[in-house]
Amino acid sequence: MARLLGPLLAAPDPVEAAEEVHRRLDALDPPVRHRTLRLLVAGIPVENEERARALARTLVRTGTGYLAVCTGLALLTELGEPQDVPYLWTLGRLRTLVRPVVHALDALDRPAGALLELRDHNGPVTFGPLLAAVEAGDRTAVRKRLVALPGDLSPVVARRVAEASGLAELLADVPGLPAAEGAAVTARAGRLLFLMTSLRDYQPEILSYPDAPRAYEGFAEGAGLLPRTLDHHALLLSAVQELSTGPAVLHDWGPGRREAVLSELTAVLNRPEWRAVPDGADDEPGVRRRVAWVRRTRAQVLAAGAPQAPGARLRIAVHERDPGDPATVEARVLVDGRPLVPDHFGRGPADSPEELLFPGALRATDEPREVRLAEAYCTEGCCGALYVTVRREGEQVVWSGWRCPVPPAGKREMPELRFDAAAYDAEVARAEGDESWMWPARRAARLIAAGLRARPDLLARWGVRLDWAGTAFRDPDETTISLLYDADDGHARQILWSIPEDGTPPEDRAAAALRRLGEEDPRAYGR
After folding, report:
1. Are 1 and 71 in contact (CB under 8 A)?
2. How far is CA 432 from CA 361, 437, 464, in A?
3. Percent of the chain predicted with pLDDT > 90
4. Is the pLDDT of residue 310 over 60?
5. Kind plus residue range of the DSSP H or E element containing 216
6. CA proximity to 342, closest of 388, 401, 386
7. How much is the pLDDT for 118?
8. Cis peptide bond prior to 178, omega within 30° of 0
9. Using N-to-C axis directions, what is the helix angle for 506-519 and 440-454, rounded to 10°?
10. Residue 355 in contact with residue 365, Cβ under 8 Å?
11. Exposed (0-12), middle (13-18) or buried (19+): which is 33, by Cβ within 10 Å?
């Protein structure tokens, strides 16, 4: 693409150059797609920005071919100026050009790009009233329409709503609003920020929201207005989780800003009226699970401020998301306070404690060992995984030999990491022994897995091996054991054995499960 278009970017006559761009792109066989074209154009070196900008504007304003117009849009992503925004906004009314126009607008006027994308949104939620209020510049109406939106938006739509509505600016107005209205805006902001931290869209949208630090500051400032409800308790705790160990840490906060937000949020959670958590004993299972999560998470996040040992670069934090918007449990790895997986991989969550901690995968020995830290949300075979080789070297532990089968675009190469061995061992041992995040079904799974590792004969007699032990995603109160065996055709077969919650202690359930595994072939009762 550089040979095809590069010389034309410096042509003195943009009209003649645009005509030649049309001819060359029309002659491509096979033609390229917009996304590929955008990436190729972004890699072309530009020696004369003024001439390249003139060519881009000519292609955008007078182009007659789809690829030619997309080339102009890709150039304006890097070279555009505020005066180009009205032309792009008009061009975006053509449905076939919405995506390339939004990409260009994101670089020049992010709220305009968000408005255009929401206008083109095809889904059950209608954004017309909110968009009309935004375009009219009526902040009162924007607040009203924002609060009226449903709370189950997708992560990317939540980000676009925040950008289009000017969420950070709306939060700055909260101190001057009536208390009830300020609380409603604050709660909606907390919900949008929470949704943006989800990995349902494979990558955390919070990292694509430049105003996240200001929005979190506004949310923290208004948090004291929130009535003490289960939903609001969950919002506050989730924000503390993400600002302590999640992708939101990776924003450019500047000195002390993130710490100040955390201090404000924990101060609200420590108020006497917030220390009482509803018992939820008589509520439906989803509410009971959420109440139990609030209790566990309160104890975790409010005790997490204890200083680490001197020289401790490594921190491991088990993260369980609010069951109201469930996700896999992660063993988040932080190095020098930065969450490693979203910083260097960004295609899915960190692996679970059952994969990283309980088998001792992170323990360092003289023998180098490759450890998987994360897998893409789809599968490793589709979009990759993140591996590192761990070894002990004298009084240091070394992480090196980073490997990702499908390297993420734009991610920088990982450096070799060195840790003080004593501090490293202490942190790994602490994380392995921490059960404060567990609920009964998950503890039963851990005890069963530990029992099977300690007594390999229990499964070996049936020709079966342990795959994993955990809890069902749709019913976290159900312990699930996954076993594998080799069928006659040479292929591995999976057995899933579900153990329901029956009110007995996890220790009793685990002991009963181990007895049955030792006495009966699991193929007779697993599925």
Report:
1. no
2. 10, 12, 26
3. 78
4. no
5. helix 212-222
6. 386
7. 95
8. no
9. 40
10. no
11. exposed
Give the type of residue at 142: V
DSSP H or E stretch at residue 287: helix 285-302
d(CA 78, CA 42): 8
Distance from C-alpha of 246 to C-alpha of 330, rounded to nearest angstrom: 10
Kind of pairing, strands 417-420 and 464-471?
unpaired
| CB-based contact 164:114 (threshold 8 Å) | yes
Site of tokens 């599925």: 527
Q: Which amino acid is at 222?
A: G
Residue type, 525: Y
Residue 116 tokens read as 């255009």
**Per-residue pLDDT tens over the stretch 35-86:** 788 888 888 899 999 999 999 999 999 999 999 999 999 999 999 999 999 9
The C-alpha atoms of residue 108 and residue 79 are separated, in whole angstroms, by: 9
Give, in order, the Cα–Cα distances in Å from 148 to each of 125, 129, 134, 184, 289.
Answer: 11, 10, 14, 10, 27
Residue 164 pLDDT: 97
CA dist list (Å): 28 to 22, 47, 304, 373: 10, 25, 58, 42
Pairing relation of β-strands 338-339 and 330-335? antiparallel
Nearest to 472 by CA among 502, 505, 496, 448: 496
Query: Distance (Å, rounded) from C-alpha 341 to C-alpha 428?
Result: 17
Instruction: Give the bridge partners for 495, in sequence order.
Output: 483
CA distance 318 to 432: 10
Q: Please choose, from the candidates 150, 167, 325, the residue with its C-alpha nearest in 3D space to the C-alpha of residue 235.
A: 325
Q: What is the pLDDT of residue 201?
A: 63
Query: Are the C-beta atoms of 278 and 229 separated by less than 8 Å?
Result: no
Report DSSP letters for 65-91, one per residue.
SHHHHHHHHHHHHHH--GGGHHHHHHH
What is the bridge-based pairing of β-strands 369-375 and 338-339?
unpaired
Beta bridge partners of 389: 370, 400
Q: Residue 468: helix, strand or coil by DSSP?
A: strand
Amino acid at 165: S
CA distance linking residue 315 with residue 189, whole number of Å: 29
Task: Note whether 170 and 344 are within 8 A (CB).
Answer: no
On whether the CB atoms of residues 260 and 292 are closer than 8 A, the answer is no
Sheet holding 479-486, edge to edge: 464-471, 479-486, 492-499
Cβ-contact 468, 482 below 8 angstroms: yes
How many C-beta atoms lie closer than 10 Å to residue 81's C-beta?
A: 10
Q: What is the mean pLDDT of the chain?
A: 92
Q: Report pLDDT for 74.
A: 94
337: left (phi over 0), alpha (psi -120 to 50) or beta: left
How far apart are the C-alpha atoms of 398 and 380, rounded to whole Å? Answer: 25
Contact between 157 and 125 (Cβ < 8 Å) = yes
